[in-house]
Amino acid sequence: MHRDNQSGTSEFLLLGISESPKEQGILFWMFLSMYLVTVVGNVLIILAIASDSRLHTPMYVFLANLSFTDLFFVTNTIPKTLVNLQSQNKAISYVGCLTQLYFLVSLVTLDNFILATMAYDHYVAICRPLHYVTAMSPGLCILLLTLCWALSVLYGLFLSLLMTRVTFCGFQKIHYIFCEMYVLLRLACSNTQIIHIVLITSGCFKFFTPLGIMIMSYVWIVRAILRIPSASSKYKAFSTCASHLAVVSLFYGTLGMVYLQPLQTYSMKDSVATVMYAVVTPMMNPFIYSLRNKDMPGALRRLFLGKAFQRLT
Length: 313
Description:
Elements: E1 11-14, H1 21-51, H2 58-86, E2 91-93, H3 94-127, H4 132-135, H5 138-163, E3 172-174, H6 181-187, H7 193-226, H8 231-259, H9 269-291, H10 295-312
Parallel strand pairs: 1-3
Antiparallel strand pairs: 1-2
Helix pairs in contact: 1-2, 1-9, 1-10, 2-3, 2-9, 3-5, 3-7, 3-8, 7-8, 8-9
């Protein structure tokens, strides 16, 4: 093992969840199928929103950004996982590992912020419908998305720079599918107490601030829905938020299981929860928004019918 950087190691071995050849074959096809479904689903969502002018509204602009984030998220991790499952060389360089970690942290943070922004959009649409056009103006939407992206990029850069101060000694084996923050800290041979405190503090802020915005938004939404006299109008208002609530529950449920715990208790069982938020959640989002949203299936049909008509002409 070469010692050609300040960490004391030049590469890591991503051994994955299992070292059994038979299980690796099953995992390869499982991850490949989930990756392809995720890519196709999120690309279709983006294309449907971009091609249909009726979907050029704040809610769908935020959804397109969420789909792009999910698409980038799985592309950051799953292709390398697939290569490792089929290759004898499972090494990833120190720089490659930190790069993967940077995008992982940035994109998880971006998912948090976009989901919170979508909750605020639902709040304005249901609680202040007469002021929606002015309250969610194009300028404000651009500003909110810019803040989401900027804060996520800066937070990812901040934690990645912190990790460059961690020393790794000797031959490092990662029994995991990608370079994840807690896993790397468990491998460190230097004192990581301060970094862990910073990680927990900043992580709680990143986790609970968007979650608090979502909870407050839905408290006001529920109060507004309960005041609606018509049962059909209540159902229509609730169905507007159902897809978002399903995605938030899936994302935050798995995210909380992994990160809201002390570093010392992090174990292999948490890798299953990480696979849930890193792979399953991005795969399920297009299905949730397509099945629970009346506008999206129509946009997808128009997208396919438009392409078919162009081929015929």
